[in-house]
Write a structure and sequence with these properties.
With 71 residues, the chain is an all-alpha fold. It has helices at residues 2-22, 28-46, 50-70. Helix 1 packs antiparallel against helix 2 (28-46) and helix 1 crosses helix 3.
Amino acid sequence: MAKFKLFLFSVAAGILMSIFVLLNTGVFRHFFSLGAVLIGIYVFKTYEGKWSRISFILLTIVFSFFFRRSM
């Protein structure tokens, strides 16, 4: 169950980062970046294992590229 939650957090952070890149408006786009940072802080506090953190970062990057291409 913990791996599935980590996967869902990575998907959410990837979606937020891809929306951040796609928006061109001023301040509103930074809310999506802030949301991704807050998810990352929560994940780093909850999952203390080195491989959990590395997999979160790599999956977030992969999902941000994936969702950016599909939008």
